[in-house]
Each structure stands twice: as C-alpha cells, then as structure tokens.
Fold this protein.
Amino acid sequence: MTGTTIGEWGRTTKGESYSFTYKAGDAKPVAPAAPAAASCSVYISDVSFHGAGAGAWFQWETSQACSGSFGSQKLQTQMWRSSWSGPRGYNNWHGTGLTSSSFIDYGWSTDCNDGGGTYTYYPVMQGYASGIGWGPKTRSDNDLRKGCGTRSPNP
C-alpha cells in the first residue's frame, strides 16, 4: 500500500550491519555495496479501534519477511501512548516464538481501559533474525486519540 512505512535491516557478506525505513511507493534506499548475506523487512498496519466503553479494543497486524542466511526469526510488538515526557508503553511487549519460516504474519489487539484519560495511541513493532540481530522499531503510520488511560487493563 502506497505510503506505508517499511523497515529493513540486514548484514552484508562482510559482516556489516545496516538498517533503514522508507515509505512504500518511494524509492527504496540503497543497501551497502557488499551483497546482503541476510536481510529482513517488516510491516505494521494502521491501528484501528473497535467497540465502545468497557468492551473497546485496539487492533493491528505485523509481518516480517527474511531472506538469506538468517537462521530463525521472530517479532515483537507493543502499544505506545503519548505522555508529557515522551512515548510510553501502554501494554507489555508481546512476541512470537522463533521460526525458521521466511515469512511471519500476526494480528494483535489490546483492550482499552475506558475512561482512564485521553492520550494518543499507536503500535510499534521490532523484528529479530539470528545472525542479524534486532531491527529498528517501526511504528504504525497512524495514531488514535482515545480515552483509554495510561495502562491497558490486560497488559
């Protein structure tokens, strides 16, 4: 989808690490001159809000694709919220188990703590691949201003 933020990271055959983010539809940044021994790309969807009152929740999707000599991969995600001192976790980090598959795709949700104060919320994800390490934190392209308080009722 045009405009969607994509994160990519990897390790060259010379052992050099690299990472960058770009928007779908824009020119992809040039990777290092040495060919990649392994690389991964991550995607996080826009966050959506469903329900009302005590039955409300946030929902989003994450995916990661790795190629080359990466061994195994996993990803983690967390809902963040605004605060006067900078972004804070609204719930705990949640993640997948390690898999040798080249593609993983998961849907996530977290409940809204209705009536606890109004903040701006957005999910963040980070991918991992053995032999490369952790990639950059990548956030959704949108955020939602809701009255869900400072902490999810189900961290």
Q: What stands out?
A: The chain has a mean pLDDT of 88.
